[in-house]
Amino acid sequence: MxxxxxxxxxxxxxxxxxxxxxxxxxxxxxxxxxxxxxxxxKATPEKIADLNRTLGLDQPIFVQYFKFLGRVLTGDFGSxxxxxxxxxxxxxxxxxxxxxxxxxxxxxxxxxxxxLGYLAARYHGRLVDNSVVIGTLVGVAxxxxxxxxxxxxxxxxxxxGWFPPSGRQxxxxxxxxxxxxxxxxxxxxxxxxxxxDALWHLVLPGVALATIPAAVIVRITRASVLDxxxxxxxxxxxxxxxxxxxVRRRHVLRNALLPVTTTxxxxxxxxxxxxxxxxxxxxxxxxxxxLAEGIERRDYPRLQALILLGAVVYVLVNLLVDIxxxxxxxxxxxx
Amino acid sequence: xxxxxxxxRKDKVDELAKAAGTSLTAQAFxxxxxxxxxxxxxxxxxxxxxxxxxxxxxTPKDPYFRYPELFTIKTPxxxxxxxxxxxxxxxxxxxxxxxxxxVASQQTLLVGVLATLIGLSIGMVIGGLAGAFGGWVxxxxxxxxxxMLSVPSLLLAISIAALAAQPSQWTVIIAVSIVTVPIFARLxxxxxxxxxxxxxxxxxxxxxxxxxxxxxxxxxxxSMGPVLVQATLTLATAILEAAALSFLxxxxxxxxxxxxxxxxxxxxxxxxxxxxxxxxxxIAIIIVALGFTLxxxxxxxxxxxxxxx
Amino acid sequence: xxxxEVRDLSVVFQRKGEKPFTAVxxxxxxxxxxxxxxxxxxxxxxxxxxxxxxMGLLPRRGNRVGGTATFEGxxxxxLSDNQMRERRGRDxxxxxxxxxxxxxxxxxxxxxxxxxxxxxxxxKGDAAKRKAAxxxxxxxxxxxxRRLSEYPHQxxxxxxxxxxxxxxxACAPRLLIADEPTTALDVTIQAQILSLLKELVxxxxxxxxxxxxxxxxxxxxxxxxxxxxxxxxxxxxxRHALFNHARHPYTHGLLGxxxxxxxxxxxKLVPIKGSVSDNIPWDNGCAFAPRCPNAIDDCRQxxxxxxxxxxxxxxxxxxxxxxxxxxxxxx
Lengths: 335, 309, 331
Prior knowledge:
- The structure holds 3 protein chains of 3 kinds.
- Chain A has helices at 2-29, 33-39, 45-55, 61-73, 87-122, 127-141, 144-155, 182-189, 192-229, 232-239, 244-281, 287-296, 300-328, 330-334.
- Chain A folds into 2 domains: 2-73, no CATH class; 90-334, MetI-like (MetI-like fold, Orthogonal Bundle), CATH 1.10.3720.
- By secondary structure, chain A is mostly helical.
- Chain B has helices at 7-20, 22-34, 36-58, 68-71, 97-133, 135-149, 153-161, 169-196, 199-206, 211-222, 224-247, 260-267, 276-303.
- Chain B is elongated.
- Chain B is built from 13 helices and no strands.
């Protein structure tokens, strides 16, 4: 098992390495070059030449690349053009908000997706199945940000007013910050009103962000269960006279969830993309919000860091999923 | 040395390949004609195409003209709704919103089709080369594709769109298309690799047909099924991704341009005043995306060998 | 009284928008305690469907089952799903064709054996494991305690089939149904598995229903043989009678298409013409008529019935003459 984990870790390194080259190239390809991008509107040819010298952009390209790599590895992404803060600090501050939102969405997606998919497969071809399938098809056709606005319009503010329309916490609520995770802080400090408030704020953006991953998980689960129930080993399990629940849990679900695990890993990519849109709709001060703001203000140092970070997170999450897959499927470990 | 092979045997191999490929497609088509899902999808797509083609003839008003009667009564917090002559009322610039929704179908179709076609072409070249040559070509190309896939798709689109000094419709199209490249590349490579060990390709190799001929005449055509399915599905996601990019401010800043995603993104600012400005383009996008998805999914199901009887 | 009495068993598959298809059509046979009975025929003749119907393992939807299958006085076909689950694995065991796909790939061999012990014998923990190791040992798997924690992909094909046999026999059922248990295995392994099965049923007194297309398997194992064609039994005979003077042209054909080492040099194999798809429906005559070398007009007009024929039973208008059969057999 350990050898499997190490091997997968080593396999991720070339991908990350090529990625760093691409991001470096991306920075060079920006309009006006990195210097122009950094100076933005204030760029004049003299200033650009000046900055190029300071940044070492007159040095040979591979020297520049290794310097860039060195900075990236030490976490130095420069400072944001918008806030003048170090980009890494900005990200560190915004990260808990995004993780909290993404985890909520992932939990919702998995929590609803797998049971619904299983239900659809069990009642294959009947009304339940057809409704679930149509629901998932519509679910992936709705633009995430529009869904966010719809939820806001219907359930928050001027609509039913059940949920707060934006933000992570009600202003004026006295919450102590420990980890930056609003819900976790509420629990740690025993401020349960703050915990409830944070949870309340999570509902609408969480649902908006969960929709597409949930739809995908439903469909993969359904297809996978339909495949597995026709497998010979399920017939063997039935021939042993095992109880219905045992056959379902131990033999059908356990095998059917293998492809679902991979899908959940792939969904984190969708989640990261969706978070950018959702956070903007709900004024959620996370990574996506930073990114959207960065695009609007052409804050290239920030964008560069975020793109690299997004890719690294995605690679790492899929690595984790692979390892999880190895734990549930003994055949993978052996390879 | 192809002359060694008699013509008759060549035909025989072709027949084998055809039997594996086209008759399969014909069967799939037959199955699709019976499926209500496929019919619904096809009808939606057909209506959308008709709408886009005949939009200029269908619009009751000039979609680009700022009507004074709509504009003059506009106050900062009021955009007129439905009124005689203007079915959907006005947009924020006093233009006829109904005509704009109609004519926007053209640009939306253009964005979807171009983004898909560009992604498809580049992806097919990469996947085709990898699948045809194998070996180190395959390794290098697929490593590149893996890296592209290692960036979450919207993030990749954003980083490409952000490269343009001035955002435009083209940056959106190109950004969206690049995202689909790795998907098509992997798909075609996979299908071709599967073909490579199939009986009719082995038969063709055994009778000494040149590799180029095998690839072009046997492997490629028979690998097109899944690619076609993916292209149909991509038309839906391309339209949705383009809307997302517009929403993030990476869309075309030209206020004259009518495109559903752009209109939906711009309408967010007036959501509290006139939610319909967002609803109509959103509903249009949802229906069209659904249409392409239904069509693509039923194609996939029809082509799936598991469903063959 | 027979252990299992199958009477007039029929299975009709009906899929939405398609013609109903009769896979098993009025099949009757008996299995006595400790007896080995063969069901023989080409693929599609209904032999597997018969066994699945007896075990209650047919898909829940899309089929109709008629007739009775009385096991120790209880008609299995009238039992509820839950009652049937009590019986399967305890009174009736089954071994399937493909040992790899018939074992759950993500669960250890140990659990796959112990779960049936726990279900029907209430054995848990170490007791169950000890018993499982004992079972694996009995089916000839070396180092059984270590194998318990292994997964199906770590075992060879023969070992997997041995494990499946151990699972099927774990609770000492009175009847074991083996559906083509050797078809997916190498020839050398086939013989080992067959002799294992023979040994086990003799030792434990378990009755065995052997489903196969391979007359070689029948020759080595079965006391009585039922030959199926087109969902009906066309000939039933004791093993030696069948091999020495098969009466039905189909059985005769099956025997004729096996290469024999003791055949005179130059003798040709006689294949059966056509395939199962050439069948005509039984109500228009004999389903085998289009492929039958002995077919006469009667065969295409009236359905033959299963009638007593010497010690066995036969469904044929124009059987192979006994004299011919003996002569063929003597060659």
